[in-house]
Amino acid sequence: MENQSQQSISKVGEKYTADQISVLEGLEAVRKRPGMYIGDTSTRGLHHCVYEIVDNAVDEALAGYCSEIKVIIHVDNSVTVVDNGRGIPVDMHPKEKISAAELVYTKLHAGGKFNEEGSAYKVSGGLHGVGAAVVNALSKWVKLEIKKGGNKYQVEFERGVSKYPLKQVSELENKSETGTAVTFKPDNEIFEVHEYNYDTLANRFREMAFLNKGLKISIKDERSEKKDTFHFEGGLVEFVTYLNRAKTPVHKDPIYVSESREDYEVEISMQWTDSYSEVLSGYANAISTPGGGTHLSGFKTALTRVLNNYAKENNLLKGINTNLTGDDMREGLTAIISVKLPELQFEGQTKDKLGNSEVEGIVNSLVGESLKKYFEENPNTAKTIIRKSVDAAAAREAARRARELTRRKSALEIGGLPGKMADCQEKDPALCEIYIVEGDSAGGSAKQGRDRKTQAVLPLKGKILNVEKARYDKMLSNNEIRMFVQALGTGVGKGNFDISKLRYHKIVIMTDADVDGSHIRTLILTLLYRQFPELIEQGYIYIAQPPLYKYKKGRKETYIKDEKSLEEFLVVNSVEDTVISVGGEVIDNEQAMSIIKKYRSYNRTLESYDTHFDTLLLRKIIEDSNLSSELLKDKAKLSTELETLTKYLKSIENESLRNYSFDIEEDKENGTNQVRISVKTTARNKKFKLSSYFLDSAEFADLKNFYDGVKKFTGKKFKIVREKNEAREFDSLSDFSDFIIQDGKQGAYIQRYKGLGEMNPEQLWETTMNPENRTLLQVKIEDTVEADQVFSVLMGDQVEPRRQFVEENALNARNLDV
Ligand code: 1YM
User: Are 240 and 269 contacting, i.e. CB atoms less than 8 angstroms apart?
Assistant: First the structure.
């Protein structure tokens, strides 16, 4: 290791001053132990680099000098972050003899103490001012551009070392323009993962824009043309409205509190909905604190006290024989608690819990006073909330009685285990697994096929209750859920759940690979997430992966997990031992397979739109039309484009047996036009619209990209020669890929399993339950607020957010489902 660091220092081949050597040693330390600075070198660390740079721009915004931040992901996974702040200082540092900007990017622990007064730099979080140097050390290259004082400056670095001193590159046309632009490419030698995930970054920036009201953050992905702009004048109030979009609020506007005392700022927004879950999300200096901490406990104490006092003073608890607990009051509450403070202290194993003890009292007293005032001024809201808490308390009481009853009954009748269940012999939970299986027939196969020593099976019949729409008491009266709870052994609910009583350390959900199966899986996951979150956190929950196909040729039997894998398998089979050429040029088989795979994926994706669009038309739009959201705005150009399209469609009318008509109409909401399309076939009449929403969507961009990847091959002639056989020629990629798939099927028997029940016990064991062959997916929750969203959107009552979610996630959902 020593040698290595020596080497990479001397590689640069320049003479160094003592100061610069200490800089290099600092950067080497970061490269040797990246984990210490950015957590890890996989997905999380990779994305963390962007947050570090963006944090510097956010700090500039918090200081009041920057209003807009732009982030661009480039095709090579380098990232540019631009802000319109003052620009990082470019003046020489008197002692270090390099510009302040270079210092910020090369020196650890240089954070912010540049100006003599030592400005309290860094409020937005992260690495206390060394973020830029850390990112630089972990980047293959960095380019820094600064606009300041009427000039543009620039400096570039390679693996943390500057290639030349900061230099002025031009004078600005607009002399008053200022800002900083940083482009960096994370070093492939350091990171195991190299691709940025658009949604991960976009979600973080949405959150940051909510937390810093007025700040505009935009993100653009040049790999897919996805883009978003986040800008919320309403800040936390808009955040809560966003989080509650799939829920039904029980009072109109979110409550908002913003108070400060000395160096401490407290900002809270909250709103109750008719749901039964609680979403409390805390931030300290805009850093998320999933572990909770003193800001949350201060908030909870204040809320309980104020509501209890209000209820008593206004005689709202008449005739109620149980106390209202904090949990009763927070049922259905969505709240964001954001604090800003001078010196952050984090606690807990993952350092995600706010530890500053002084914060508890400050939040408690500031929030207490404001809420008291709020409820006095808004008695109707206060009464609604208290009524809801009283209901929650009553439900809690009913559930307690129900639980007592089952406990007594089950102890007497069945020794604590549901009758339909088959338990395993082993008693050590760490070695035990339980398969939760859909339906009695699959349950039967699983019971016969399992390893009786360690595997238990619980069949659940039909759809279990959607707990998103049912309160605790109703949930416990549901038979399937009661069986499930009994089987786990932990009990359920606050004060009753005890993870040490868990009887199985692997809980495996095994449902059919179809729409119903995926719905049942979601219902079970909803139950687990809402009632047993600890089981997910501890990594006890898994999803089984039963195969969808069996391929049998002669004696050879192969189980294949989904349609995509089947196609890949067929392609590999068919291409083996052949020589393939395209347009007269021989290509290697790997490349041939990749072309076919891409082309098949493109077609599969196109076809998956069949339910809500016309595949033939969509193909034409993707492959050769100029339709775009830009074009929609221009009615004349749009008409011309549609005429061309009509001409083409008329020309194939007989062949396709379809009749298309287009109507342009105004899309007032978006200030553009949209096209109403009707397709008549002999069988039915389909109507749908083509809007800017669709043309700007990620799916549309995905399709375009897919097609771009195969375009140059579509019209080429393909030739394939198999040993000794005659050559076969094809006029297009479409014909060629059809042949390859058919050829891969030759002489084989392919069975598609419609459900688990179709597999016999041995097959189920071999493919899905045998620990030596099976693949299990472990269920993880990375972000609880995000997870709450997914469940409330998917399982709640609001139709529109669900429709939007399914549409936005259509491709992902399909990928998950197949
Ligand atoms: C795209 C990343 O880093 N912007 C940025 C950074 C700084 C300033 C302005 C800045 C800060 C101060 C004074 C100050 C930084 N400056 C320093 C240091 N965008 C991005 N924009 N003038 C400009 O804190 O007093 C560190 S970061 F230390 F040099 F002042």
Answer: yes
Go through the domains of the chain in sequence order and give each one's CATH number.
28-231 (3.30.565.10), 236-392 (3.30.230.10), 417-545+774-781 (3.40.50.670), 578-745 (3.10.20.690)
Amino acid at 148: K
Q: Residue 162 is inside which H or E element, if any? A: strand 161-162
Q: What distance in Å separates the CA atoms of residue 533 and residue 781, rounded to the nearest whole number? A: 9
Beta strand spans in 193-253 (E): 216-221, 226-231
How many angstroms from the chain centroid is the CA of residue 225?
A: 18
Asked whether the beta carbons of 795 and 466 are under 8 A apart, the reply is yes
What's the pLDDT tens digit per position in 231-245?
999 999 999 999 998
Integer Cα distance of 253 and 7 in angstroms: 62
In the chain, the N- to C-terminal Cα span, in Å, equals: 46
**Residues 90-120: tens digit of each pLDDT:** 998 888 789 999 999 998 864 433 333 333 3
What pLDDT was estimated at residue 447?
Answer: 95
266 alpha carbon – ligand 1 mean position (Å):
25
Cα 476 from Cα 497, distance rounded (Å):
14
**CB 145 near ligand 1, within 6 Å:** no
Contact 532, 488 (CB under 8 A): yes
Residue stretches of the chain with pLDDT short of 50: 1-14, 110-126, 411-415, 810-818
Query: Is the Cβ atom of 81 under 6 angstroms away from ligand 1?
Result: yes
**By the 8 A CB rule, do 718 and 743 touch?**
no
121 lines ligand 1 (CB under 6 A): yes
pLDDT at position 815 is 33
The finding on whether 57 has its CB within 6 A of some atom of ligand 1 is: yes
Among 195, 186, 191, CA closest to 40 = 191
Identify which of 375, 783, 748, 792 has the alpha carbon closest to the alpha carbon of residue 572: 748
Cβ of 50 less than 6 Å from ligand 1: no
**In this structure, what DSSP letter does residue 245 have?**
T
Q: Which of 50, 99, 121, 154 to mutate to test the pocket of ligand 1 (most atoms within 8 A of CB)?
A: 121
**Ligand 1 centroid – CA 56 distance (Å):** 7
Q: Whose CA is nearest to atom 4 of ligand 1?
A: 57
Distances (CA, A) of 73 to 57, 231, 381, 460: 17, 19, 45, 46
Q: Is the pTM of this model over 0.90?
A: no
- Secondary structure letter of residue 653 according to DSSP: H
> For ligand 1, atom 12, which residue shows the shortest CA distance?
88
What gap in Å lies between CA 98 and CA 606, rounded to an integer? 56
* Contact of 435 with 521, CB cutoff 8 Å: no
Provide, for the chain, the percentages of residues in helix, strand and coil under a 3-state DSSP scheme, each rounded to the nearest 5.
Answer: 45, 20, 35
Q: Given the DSSP bridges, would you call strands 68-73 and 216-221 parallel, antiparallel or unpaired?
A: parallel
Catalytic positions, written as ranges:
438, 512, 514, 516
Q: Are the beta carbons of 362 and 298 closer than 8 angstroms?
A: yes
Contact 673, 633 (CB under 8 A): yes
CB neighbour list of residue 814: distance below 8 Å, 6 or more residues apart: 608
pLDDT score for 793: 75
Cα–Cα distance list, 443 to 194, 420, 505, 510, 698 (Å): 42, 9, 20, 10, 40
What tens digit of pLDDT does each residue of 671-729 get? 899 999 998 887 778 888 888 878 887 678 878 888 988 898 988 999 999 887 889 99
Res 7: pLDDT: 32
3-state secondary structure 644-675: HHHHHHHHCHHHHCEEEEEEEEEEHHHCEEEE
For residue 449, what pLDDT is reported?
94
Distance of CA 572 from the midpoint of ligand 1 (Å): 55
